Amino acid sequence: MAYDLELIGVEKIYDNGTVAVRNFDLQVEKGQFISFVGPSGCGKTTTLRMIAGFESITSGEVRIRGRRINELPAEQRPTSTIFQNYALFPHMTVRQNIEYGLSVKGLPAPDRRKKAEGIMEKFELLEVADRRHEVLSGGQQQRIALARGIAVEPEILLLDEPLGSLDANLRKSIQNELKLLQRDLGITFIFVTHAQEEALVLSDRVIVMNRGEVEQVSPPYELYTRPKTRFVAQFIGRNTNIPGTLKGRDGEIAVVDTGYGTLKGFLNDSSLSDGEGVIAVVPSEAIDVYPVTVNREELVARYQGNVVEGVVRAADLVGHTVFYAIDLPDNREVRIESHIEKYHEAFEAGVSRVYLGWAPNEATVIGKG
Ligand code: ATP
User: Which end of the chain is flanked by fewer CB atoms within 10 Å, N or C?
Assistant: First the structure.
């Protein structure tokens, strides 16, 4: 069966020579929630606009359900796009905004009306159907934009930072609605966001882009726990990256020589050879902190050698969460966030010397890249 969406070697070079997207390959099955994340200017929006038909494709191919759509005008593509500013028509009522897309698709007036009624009911917009959107709240405007996008029954819904202009609480609640809606409709969502947490919560797979290229495509948990590249290790989550040399391996576990001694981690790139430069990526959540009064040998046994000494430079309490900034001997900083209960305010900034320990399988060893 054909993929719902397929990108094959897609590239975009703008007229001014900017290479915005390079050799993008992607295969999406029907009903998946896919997010694009990456720093500003990495090519997320350009990719979305090429799928939508608002931007020409320099080379490569975009297919929807097996059909090449490169040359198809935007309004003939089986996609709907929802923008950050919602792009609602100010001179139209909510109802007219929703009916507009249906008229572009050529639906006769009675059918348009019926369909718009149904969708407004689903989105709880009937009460405001005959108002103009500028008098409505951000959340309502967001729902109108979604209703308008979905009314035309797209095969793929494209969302460009659709929650970007909402405040944090509203954003959270609309996030949940969005996920439920996507499950309910069973259609493919392609979602562009600056907020990596949002992408990790909502998506079946997250695509991390950097400088026009795809760095990694993975389900959120895998992306978070098993970065494949140095860029992803820095961009996603809160990791400490320790450089070293691959010394050997014990099954899936890599043994790495580092400035802090021999450390171990899951080897996430089987093409690496002994003697190569690598990075041990240690997630903040994996690290346990102990006062140096505990027996070091016991810790070394417990963490199979993954024990490093440091000094607490800063300790901040926010509600029930404590944040520690811990300096390793070469001033590399480790940031730890934990529930207050775990450490009972055990460590003081500037004073406490500590041991940090983590299980080998929770760290990931990747190439220097
Ligand atoms: P942001 O998160 O800031 O929206 P983005 O990841 O969506 O960024 P794009 O908007 O796709 O990135 O831009 C990718 C690159 O293409 C950037 O270098 C940008 O400056 C450039 N670019 C975007 N639109 C054009 C254009 N119309 N003409 C020339 N260059 C462009």
Answer: N
